[in-house]
Amino acid sequence: MSERLYIFDTTLRDGEQVPGCQLNTVEKIQVAKQLEALGVDVIEAGFPISSPGDFNSVIEISKAVTWPTICALTRAVEKDIDCAAEALKFAKRKRIHTGIGTSDSHIKYKFNSNREEIIERAVAAVKYAKRYVEDVEFYAEDAGRTDNEYLARVVEAVIKAGATVVNIPDTTGYCLPHEYGAKIKYLCDHVAGIEHAIISTHCHNDLGMATACTLAGVLNGARQVEVTVNGIGERAGNTSEEEIAMILKCHHLDIDTNINTRKIAATSRMVSSLMNMPVQANKAIVGRNAFAHSSGIHQDGVLKNVETYEIINPKDVGIDDNSIILTARSGHAALKHRLEVLGVEVNNEERLNDIYQRFLALADKKKEVTDDDILVLAGEERAASHSIKLDYLQVTSGHGVRPVAAIILDIAGEKFQAAAEGNGPVDAAINALKNIIHRKMTLKEFTIQAINRGSDDVGKVHMQVEYDGSVYYGFGANTDIVTASVEAYIDAINSFKK
Ligand code: KIV
Ligand code: ZN
After folding, report:
1. Residues 72, 43: contact at Cβ < 8 Å?
2. How far is the CA of 272 from the centre of ligand 2 (A)?
């Protein structure tokens, strides 16, 4: 019989730590429900002591989700554990994830401590968490660079204290796959009582080896993997959930997960769209080129027999080539169906109608409305709640013309207008906006992305604006890229704290 590998999804904790990826509670619930439909075993819902927003999200996700275990992160600190236990009070299945750095550099520079004291603090934290929940996971931060003998002592002590899962993070993404695999094997072979706990992998992708290290961990005895959708996460990200799920499906390793792989594409799109984090085109499994054969030799082979160049059936990850193409003649039902396929739940008629009206406006400008367009439309409500809105924008630019822009903003119901010149159309429009909003703000990062191919396509703009010592993220999407840029700027301004 196959062995079971537990999938621990940390998209909403490690993934959400990425600047610009922050979600509000409603969006987190949407992702959590999609993760439940995908079949993950554990959802790490947040780090409750870190902010009231995280605390509240853990509470609301606990209420919204039924069968996955809800996990909350803490440091090895009593007040963190108290806070996590409180946030988890509505979870049907709950886990506290506590831990401490175990590498010599963490012990010396982070804690100004010594190895023995760290073991005592680890044991105390696990015992304290056990007062609240049965299921306690311990993480040995920077285990990747912790020497194996000492790590085995830590793991043995926390299992004795009651840890049910022990997480061995390669926090800095430093390990080579064979080293990481050997580390897991060392623990399986040398820790007394190891059979009382599950060993978990948690790998970062700084050197592009997160998936390889995770797999090496699994082949050497780990039975839980900590992963994120699209591999998002701090710096270069975490191990990608879809890669692990599909490796186990394609190779017959006698190790099964509970993942419904047909939900992978919808989950990937939802996370990418809500977190404003584009998926690179050549990303394994979920990149838009992952199944596109462009060379003549490949196309010829695939037409003769798909097995020649295709190891995964796109349908197995939820990519449906026969998906209905939406045009201006499509009705509410077709749009609702497509939204559901894309993982967007719309159970409110008013909201559906609102998205539908915007869909019709877009379909008038474009021949075909793509899945990405629909996800952008579905995400536009965020702009509706803004107190500063773009009411009107006219820009004149061209070859031999000094660009000028005229703008009208609606600020809490009152209209303000201004005009300005600039080095280009976007510069002129932003200068005009700054003639209304007199704040000292600086554009730090600005990316424009066409969603698909044609010149009639929706452009997505991601921006970072610095104001009063903080950096704020903004997003805009429009068939007019100057308008999308101004919308992104306004989106960032609306999130200023004062
Ligand atoms: O990378 C890491 O070490 C972590 C721990 C907090 C689990 O994310
Ligand atoms: Zn991590």
Report:
1. no
2. 19
Atom of ligand 1 nearest to the CA of 97: 7
> CA 120 to CA 122: how far, in whole Å?
5
483's tokens = 């308008």
Categorise residue 318: left if φ over 0, alpha if ψ from -120 to 50, beta otherwise.
left
Going residue by residue through the chain, which has 498 residues, state the pLDDT in tens, using 9 for 90 and above: 789 999 999 999 999 988 778 888 888 999 999 999 999 999 999 999 999 999 999 999 999 999 999 999 999 999 999 999 999 999 999 999 999 999 999 999 999 999 999 999 999 999 999 999 999 999 999 999 999 999 999 999 999 999 999 999 999 999 999 999 999 999 999 999 999 999 999 999 999 999 999 999 999 999 999 999 999 998 999 999 999 999 999 998 999 999 999 999 999 988 988 887 889 889 999 998 888 766 667 667 767 777 777 788 989 999 875 456 688 888 888 888 888 776 676 777 888 888 899 889 888 887 778 776 787 777 666 666 688 999 999 999 999 899 999 999 999 999 999 999 999 999 999 999 999 999 999 988 787 766 555 666 667 787 888 898 887 878 787 878 899 899 989 988 988 877
Measured CA to CA, the distance from residue 163 to residue 155 in angstroms comes to: 9
Q: If phi over 0 gives left and psi between -120 and 50 gives alpha, with beta otherwise, what is residue 443?
A: beta
Whose Cα sits closest to atom 1 in ligand 1? 171
Residues in contact with ligand 1 (CB, 6 Å cut-off): 14, 139, 141, 167, 169, 171, 202, 204
Residue 256 CA to residue 233 CA, distance in Å, equals 25
Separation of CA 71 and ligand 1 centre (Å)? 13
- Measured in Å, residue 197 CA sits from the centre of ligand 2 at 20
How big is the chain, counted in residues?
A: 498
